[in-house]
C-alpha cells in the first residue's frame, strides 16, 4: 500500500503482520498484527485510503481492516459474508472509490459498496475462475479468466458478457490490464509457464480482446506473479523461490509484441515481491518502478530506472 505493508505470518488464526513503510530499519517482529480468523488468500490495500486493507479468506468472507497507526490495534470495519466458498481474488476499482469486487472458488463474482458496507449485486458466475481485473479506461468493464484459458469481458452495468480464449490451460494465473493491453502470467500442466498479451477493444466497443502473442517462460514449480505499469506497458515478473525479477515491454505493433528487458537478479531467493505505488517514483531520477522484495528474514527495497545521458531534463515519456 501507500502507507503500510502486510504479510501472512506463520501460525493459526490467519495472522497478518503489518509494517510501517515510512519507518524503515530492522524489526525482528512486525509492529502490529491482525488476527483475521480465516486464512487470508487475497490481500489488497484500498488505493484511495492507505489505511484500509481488504482480506479475502478461506472462511468465505471479505473483511475490511482499518490500520490507523502502529500504536493502535487494527479495527474491523465490516465483514462481508455473501460468498459460500473460499474467496480467491479481490480487486478494488482503480478509478472509483468504495467499489470492491471479489471472486470465490465457485467462480461467483460479487460487487461491494465499501462506503455503505452493502452488497451491490452479483456480477457474473465464471466456473473455475482464477483471476480478475478491472479495465483502467472503461470503468464498468471487468475481465475474468478461468482455468480453461477463457477470458470473459463483463459489462458490470448491463451484465452483458463477451468471450475469447487464450489457447492455454492454467493451473493458476495472474491478469492485469493497461490502457490498451491485457497481460496474463500463467502456469499450466507440466509446470509450463507462459506470458500472454491481448489487445483490448476501444471503450464502448462490446467486442472481445484480440490475442497478440504468447511467450513461453520455461518450466518451474511457482507461478510468476505480475506487476504491470499501466502507462509504460512494462511488466515485472517474479516467482516464489527464485532470485530473478524479469521485466518485459509490450507493444501493439507487429512483429514483436513482447520484448524481454534486462533481468534483475540477487543472491537471495524471494518469497514474494510487491510493487510500491507509482506515485512514489522520482521521475527526475529516471525511476519507473519500486518494489519490496520479501526474503526469509528481510525485506529489500528495489528501484528500477532507465539509462539516460541527460538526467537534468524532464523525462516526459516516463
Explain what you see.
By secondary structure, the protein is mostly beta strands. It contains no helices and 27 strands. Strands 20, 21, 22, 23 and 24 form a five-stranded antiparallel β-sheet that branches. The protein has a four-stranded antiparallel β-sheet with strand order 4-5-6-7, with no helix packed on it. It is globular and about 50 Å long. The two termini are 22 Å apart. The model has no long low-confidence stretch (mean pLDDT 88).
Features:
318 residues, 5-stranded antiparallel β-sheet, mainly beta, 0% helix, 4-stranded antiparallel β-sheet, 27 strands, globular, single chain, 51% strand
Helix and strand run: EEEEEEEEEEEEEEEEEEEEEEEEEEE
Radius of gyration equals 19 Å
User: Helix content range of the residues, please?
Assistant: under 10%
Q: How many distinct beta strands?
A: 27
Largest sheet: 5 strands, antiparallel
- Determine the N-to-C terminus distance: 22 Å
Amino acid at each position: 500500500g501507500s502507507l503500510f505493508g502486510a504479510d501472512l505470518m506463520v501460525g493459526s488464526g490467519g495472522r497478518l503482520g503489518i509494517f510501517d513503510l515510512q519507518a524503515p530499519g530492522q524489526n525482528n517482529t512486525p509492529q502490529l498484527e491482525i488476527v483475521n480468523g480465516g486464512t487470508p488468500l487475497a490481500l489488497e490495500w484500498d488505493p484511495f485510503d492507505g489505511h484500509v486493507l481488504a482480506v479475502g479468506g478461506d472462511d468465505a468472507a471479505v473483511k475490511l481492516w482499518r490500520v490507523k497507526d502502529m500504536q493502535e490495534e487494527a479495527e474491523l470495519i465490516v465483514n462481508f459474508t455473501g460468498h459460500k466458498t473460499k474467496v480467491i481474488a479481490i480487486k478494488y476499482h482503480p478509478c472509483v472509490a468504495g467499489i470492491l469486487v471479489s471472486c470465490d472458488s465457485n467462480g461467483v463474482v460479487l460487487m461491494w459498496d465499501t462506503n455503505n458496507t452493502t452488497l451491490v449485486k452479483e456480477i457474473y458466475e465464471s466456473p473455475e475462475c482464477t483471476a480478475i481485473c478491472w479495465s483502467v479506461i472503461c470503468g464498468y468493464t471487468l475481465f475474468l479468466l478461468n482455468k480453461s484459458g477463457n477470458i470473459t469481458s463483463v459489462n458490470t452495468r448491463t451484465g452483458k458478457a463477451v468471450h475469447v480464449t487464450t489457447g492455454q490451460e492454467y493451473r493458476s494465473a495472474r491478469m492485469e490490464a493497461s490502457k490498451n493491453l491485457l497481460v496474463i502470467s500463467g502456469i499450466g500442466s507440466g509446470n509450463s509457464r507462459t506470458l500472454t498479451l491481448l489487445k483490448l477493444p476501444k471503450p464502448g466497443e462490446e467486442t472481445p480482446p484480440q490475442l497478440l502473442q504468447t511467450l513461453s517462460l520455461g518450466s518451474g514449480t511457482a507461478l510468476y506473479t505480475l506487476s504491470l505499469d499501466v502507462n509504460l506497458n512494462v511488466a515485472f515478473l517474479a516467482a516464489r523461490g527464485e532470485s530473478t525479477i524479469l521485466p518485459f515491454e509490450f507493444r501493439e505493433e507487429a512483429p514483436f509484441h513482447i520484448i524481454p528487458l534486462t533481468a534483475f537478479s540477487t543472491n537471495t531467493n524471494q518469497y514474494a515481491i510487491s510493487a510500491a505505488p507509482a506515485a512514489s517514483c522520482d521521475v527526475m531520477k529516471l525511476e519507473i518502478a519500486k518494489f519490496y522484495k520479501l526474503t526469509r528474514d528481510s525485506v529489500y527495497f528495489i528501484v528500477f530506472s532507465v539509462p539516460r545521458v541527460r538526467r537534468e531534463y524532464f523525462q516526459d515519456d516516463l
